[in-house]
Design a protein that fits this description.
Shape: elongated
Strand order of the largest sheet: 1-2-3-5-4
Largest sheet: 5 strands, mixed
Strand content: 5-15%
Order of helices and strands: HHHHHHHHHHEHEEHEE
Helix content: 55-70%
Number of strands: 5
Radius of gyration: 35 Å
Number of helices: 12
Length: 404
C-alpha cells in the first residue's frame, strides 16, 4: 500500500513548478507557429522562423535540465548545429535543424501535460478536500435545513477514492513527461545510431591497431628470432659437411634434428599468430566453424543451427569471435556443467544464443569481457542482450544483420 501511495518529491515539484514553464513554452511555440504562418508569404517569414527555432532549442535545453533535476531522467543533448558563415547560411542551418523542430513540438505537447500535472497535484486534492468535507460545509452554510442524504453519503467515499488515485496520476504523468523528453529533447534516433557506430568503429580501430602492434612485436621478438636461430643451425650444418676429413655425421645429425625442431616451433608459432587474423575454420562457413568451436569447450555444448543463408565475411567473423568469447567466459566464470549454442541466419538477420546452467550474475562491466564484446558487435550494427539472474541460468543473445 505504501508503494501505491508513494510519489517522489521531484514528481510533485515538477508538477507544480513545471506549469509556468509549460505555459511559457507552449505559448511560445503556438505563437511561433501562428506568426510564422502569417509571415510565410513575406520576406520576414523565414528569418523569423529561423530565430524562433533557435529560441525553441534554448527552451528545450531548459526543460531538459528541469527533467534531469526533478524527474531523474538525464537526456543526452542533441549535437549542436553546424556553424555557418553569413546570414543566409545561418538561416538555412536553423530552418533545417531537426533538433530545433523537435524541441518546438515538445513545447506544444508539454503544455497539456503541464496542465494535467498541475491539476493532478493541486486541483484534484483540493476538490477531494471539498468533497470529503461536504457534509460539514452543508451544515455550516445551511444550519436550519436537513441536508439530502445521498449527496452526503456519496461525497465522502468519492473524495477518498479520488484522493487515493492522486499519487498514481502524478506518477503516470511523470512517466509521460520522461518519455516525451527522451523522445523529443534528445538526439534523433538516426543521430544516436551514427554516434554509437562512430564510437564502436573508433573502439574497433583502436583494438585492431593494438592487435597489429602485438602481432608485429611477436613476429619481431619471437618468430624472427626463431628464424635467425634456424639460419645459424643450417650454417653450422653446412660447416659440418665441409671439412677435409669428411662430414661429421654425428654432429650433422644433431644439427638437422635441431633445425627440424626449430622449424616445427616456428610453424606452430606462426599458426598461433595468424589464428586471430582470420580463423581457418570459417573457410567453410559458420555451419562448420561453430560445431568445431563447441567441441573444444571444457563442458558439453549442444549445438542447434539453422543457417539458411551465409552472412557477409565480417559478420561471420563477429559471430565466430562472439561465440568463442562467450564459451570462454562460460568456462572461466559460470561454473556451468552444460551449455547450449544456437544460431540462425534467415531473413537478413543472424542470431546467436549461448545458454548455460551456471551461477549467473553475468553483466557488462563485471570483468567478463561483455562490454568489449558488445562494442565489437556494435561495429557491425549488432546488439548484445544479457539475461543472467543470480543463480542462473544465463542466456546471452547477439543479433546482427546478415549484410553490411
Amino acid at each position: 500500500m505504501k508503494g501505491v501511495l508513494r510519489v517522489r518529491g521531484g514528481d510533485w515539484v515538477f508538477a507544480l513548478a513545471g506549469l509556468p514553464l509549460a505555459v511559457v513554452g507552449g505559448g511560445y511555440a503556438l505563437a511561433v507557429l501562428y506568426a510564422g504562418a502569417l509571415l510565410s508569404l513575406t520576406v520576414l517569414g523565414l528569418p523569423f522562423v529561423a530565430v524562433a527555432l533557435t529560441g525553441a532549442r534554448g527552451l528545450g535545453a531548459l526543460h531538459r535540465r528541469l527533467v534531469a533535476r526533478l524527474l531523474g531522467e538525464r537526456v543526452e543533448a542533441p549535437a549542436a548545429p553546424p556553424r555557418a558563415k553569413g546570414p543566409v547560411a545561418r538561416c538555412r542551418v536553423a530552418l533545417t535543424d531537426p533538433a530545433a523542430w523537435r524541441a518546438l513540438l515538445y513545447l506544444v505537447l508539454r503544455l497539456p501535460l503541464g496542465v494535467l500535472g498541475f491539476a493532478a497535484a493541486v486541483a484534484v486534492p483540493l476538490g477531494c478536500g471539498w468533497l470529503i468535507g461536504f457534509p460539514l460545509w452543508v451544515r455550516l452554510l445551511q444550519p436550519d435545513q436537513r441536508p439530502a442524504l445521498w449527496p452526503t453519503a456519496v461525497s465522502v467515499p468519492l473524495g477518498l477514492v479520488l484522493l487515493a488515485a492522486v499519487p498514481g496520476a502524478v506518477r503516470a504523468l511523470s512517466r509521460a513527461n520522461r518519455w516525451l523528453a527522451r523522445l523529443l529533447l534528445g538526439p534523433a534516433r538516426a543521430q544516436r545510431r551514427v554516434t554509437e557506430l562512430e564510437a564502436a568503429r573508433a573502439a574497433l580501430l583502436t583494438e585492431n591497431t593494438d592487435r597489429l602492434r602485438r602481432l608485429e612485436r611477436d613476429l619481431h621478438d619471437g618468430t624472427q628470432a626463431r628464424l635467425v636461430a634456424l639460419a645459424i643451425t643450417l650454417s653450422l650444418a653446412d660447416d659440418a659437411l665441409g671439412p677435409a676429413a669428411g662430414p661429421d655425421l654425428g654432429r650433422l645429425r644433431d644439427l638437422v634434428d635441431r633445425a627440424r625442431g626449430q622449424t616445427d616451433a616456428t610453424i606452430a608459432e606462426l599458426r598461433l599468430l595468424t589464428r586471430g587474423i582470420h580463423p581457418v575454420a570459417l573457410d567453410g562457413g559458420l555451419g562448420e566453424a561453430l560445431p568445431g568451436l563447441a567441441a573444444t569447450a571444457p563442458v558439453p555444448v549442444t549445438v542447434d543451427l539453422d543457417l539458411r543463408e551465409r552472412p557477409d565475411p565480417a559478420v561471420e567473423r563477429a559471430v565466430y569471435y562472439c561465440a568463442a568469447e562467450l564459451l570462454t567466459n562460460m568456462a572461466r566464470h559460470s561454473g556451468a556443467r552444460s551449455a547450449g549454442l544456437a544460431a540462425t541466419a534467415a531473413g537478413g538477420r543472424v542470431t546467436l544464443t549461448v545458454r548455460d546452467d551456471g551461477r549467473g550474475g553475468a553483466a557488462p562491466g563485471t570483468g567478463t569481457g561483455l562490454t568489449g564484446l558488445a562494442g565489437r558487435l556494435a561495429a557491425v550494427d549488432g546488439v548484445l542482450r544479457v539475461d543472467s539472474p543470480p543463480g542462473g541460468p544465463t542466456v546471452i543473445t547477439a543479433e546482427l544483420p546478415a549484410r553490411l
